[in-house]
Every structure is written in structure tokens, then in C-alpha cells.
Design a protein that fits this description.
Length: 154
């Protein structure tokens, strides 16, 4: 049998899906959607005020998904929307005291486990992993753009 790069791509894609599944499973364990998990994660790790648009841009979620998750997190009492003084329409998504407590217990502890897992790699391995992964994402994004432009012309 000839060497086939498709087997490597298949394995890579399966690993990426498995990686995503770990996060989805944890979110499900917490009783929240994966998009709600990522919103809380983003709020825990950011020192800046984040709007719904910021969350869409940073985490590649559609606006409707973020909006639905924001409403669910508001209903649970974990977040609130606060007007940003320098903006007429934008509101910052902020954690409530209950949300801070929830995040400390569930999200920050997950982030610590994530850190510990990543630290099983050496600094050089982590840097190389990120460099290669970033290059792969840029390459597939460019290739996808070419394909999508081609579809418009057909």
C-alpha cells in the first residue's frame, strides 16, 4: 500500500474532535452548554471587559449561540450585562458574585487541570506544538478560502 497522507489527516481530525469532546463532556457534567463553558472560561481568564461581540470573535461562536448562552447564564445568576460608559450600545458581560464562586469551583479548577496537562510537555515542546498548530490552522484557512472562492464562480 502506498503512503497516504489522508490517514494522518484523519487521525489529526479525530484527535481534534476528541480534544473538543473532553471540553463538551466537562460542560455537560456541569450542566451547561459548551458555549456557556467557553464564555465563563473567557471571563475567568480575561482582565478586560468583554462584550458579546468580543466573545463571538475570540471563541468563533455565532452571535445567536453567544446570545442564547448569555441569556441562560443570566438566568442562572452567573453573569450580568453592564453598560460600558464609553459606548452607547455595548454592554460588558461580567460575572456576578455567584458567577465568580461558580467559576472558582468549576472553571478555574478545570483551567488548573488543563495547565497541569499542558505542563507535561517541556517548554520547547509546548512552543513547537503551538507554532505548528498555528501554521496548520493558517494553512487550512487559506486553502478553505480558495475552495470557497472557487465555489462562487461555478
Amino acid at each position: 500500500m502506498l503512503y497516504n497522507i489522508n490517514e494522518e489527516i484523519l487521525e489529526l481530525n479525530q484527535l481534534l474532535k476528541e480534544h473538543d469532546e473532553n471540553y463538551k463532556r466537562y460542560a455537560m457534567h456541569l450542566g451547561i452548554s459548551d458555549s456557556s463553558f467557553w464564555i465563563l472560561y473567557a471571563l475567568c481568564e480575561s482582565d478586560e471587559l468583554l462584550t458579546q461581540n468580543d466573545l463571538c470573535t475570540l471563541w468563533y461562536f455565532p452571535k445567536q449561540t453567544v446570545n442564547s448562552s448569555i441569556k441562560a447564564l443570566e438566568k442562572s445568576g452567573y453573569i450580568t450585562l453592564v453598560p460600558i460608559p464609553s459606548s452607547r450600545n455595548s454592554k460588558a458581560v461580567t460575572l456576578t458574585p455567584q458567577g465568580i464562586e461558580y467559576c472558582q469551583k468549576n472553571i478555574v479548577s478545570f483551567m488548573k487541570a488543563e495547565d497541569d496537562a499542558f505542563l507535561t510537555l517541556s517548554k520547547e515542546e509546548r512552543d513547537l506544538f503551538i507554532k505548528i498548530y498555528r501554521r496548520q490552522i493558517v494553512s487550512i484557512k487559506a486553502a478553505t478560502e480558495v475552495l470557497m472562492k472557487g465555489d462562487l464562480n461555478d
